[in-house]
Amino acid sequence: MSIIKGQATFEFTIPCLKKIEGKSFYSPIFSTADNMFWQLEYQPNDPEDSHCCLVFLTAIPNPEEAISTQFWSDRANVEASLFMKTSSYNKSYIMTTHDYSIRGKSWGKSFEKMKNYAPVTIGVTFVNSDLELKGYNSVLTTRPETKDITEAWSRQLDVPENSDVLFNVKDGVVYASKSILSERSEYFSGFFKDVPDISKVVFLEMLRYIYTDEVRFNLVPSVEIFRVADKYLLTKLRQKARVEIFKRLTNKNAMSVLFNEAWKWNDLKDDIINFIVDNFQEMKDTPEYKKLAAEYKGHPAGIEIFQEILDRLLDKQILK
């Protein structure tokens, strides 16, 4: 593998648009530096302008980025120009890359929608990046790649005939393998026992992570996964859940997440207080904030939490 510094263009041609009308297309994943991966996405319709389509440059997080709640600083040094072209059309836009984070992995531009069905080429030009020269699959797809190993291990979970241990959780029984659990979890390597305080769906999702390194946050609340990962000393899963909680914060739910759960863990509490401080002007007028602001003294840590919010608001004001 050779590495050079300079400019490089990645471009991909979408065939006859009539055949794929209404579908989004994704480029293969490509890299501009060691552990810095990207993907292009073409969306045929711009919801804000019926005469336009959209092209996105998506950052594929590396392991460090995937567990960070901060902006991805390494990507801020990369200059990029997003473009779309046909035989009669060529348009490009300069992209800023300093806003990429776990809450904003994909940024795009609007382009004129082609009136004919000729092939369209989308692409991106990078400047001042370390370019790894190596081969890659150039085939466009409308679906993500399958993960055969992950799926194979996933099929072994909660299958009685393939298991040598069972857990009596509060609403059922879950089957698993002692060897896999012991290898992947410090907690489970010590002993096994009943877990009556965890629901079956949450416990299964934790075991799914231990088996496959993946977790389905669309099925189980991220706060529940965080709690069980913290209890069973699954550090990486705990951080994944922490990031997922941060991604899903809004002006309406941040206060309730903080007061209901996050205050129990310092790192999670800090994430949410920082979010509240950064969005305070919009949040302070929401019914959710006003309700908790009026009732916080009844919370076991209410006074301490509001003092921290006030202190950080004052610090932010001083820095300005």
Describe the structure.
The protein is of the alpha+beta class and 320 residues long. 36% of the residues lie in helices and 25% in strands. The protein has 13 helices and eleven strands. The protein has helices at residues 63-66, 73-76, 148-155, 178-184, 186-190, 200-212, 222-231, 235-247, 254-260, 266-278, 280-283, 287-295, 302-319, and strands at 2-14, 25-26, 30-33, 36-43, 52-60, 79-85, 90-95, 106-112, 120-133, 165-169, 172-176. Strands 2, 3, 4, 5 and 8 form a five-stranded antiparallel sheet that branches. The chain has a four-stranded antiparallel sheet with strand order 1-9-6-7, with no helix packed on it. A two-stranded antiparallel ribbon has the order 10-11. A hairpin with a 2-residue loop joins β3 (30-33) and β4 (36-43). α9 runs antiparallel to α10 (266-278). The chain is globular, with a radius of gyration of 24 Å. Residues 132-138 and 144-149 have low confidence and may be disordered.
Can you count the helices?
13
Global morphology: globular
Rg calc? 24 Å
* Poorly predicted spans: 132-138, 144-149
Total E-strand runs: 11
* H/E element order: EEEEEHHEEEEHEEHHHHHHHHHH
Report how far the terminal alpha carbons are from each other: 46 Å
Going by helix content, strand content and strand pairing, the class is alpha+beta
Percent helix among the residues?
A: 25-40%
Mean pLDDT: 81
Largest sheet: 5 strands, antiparallel
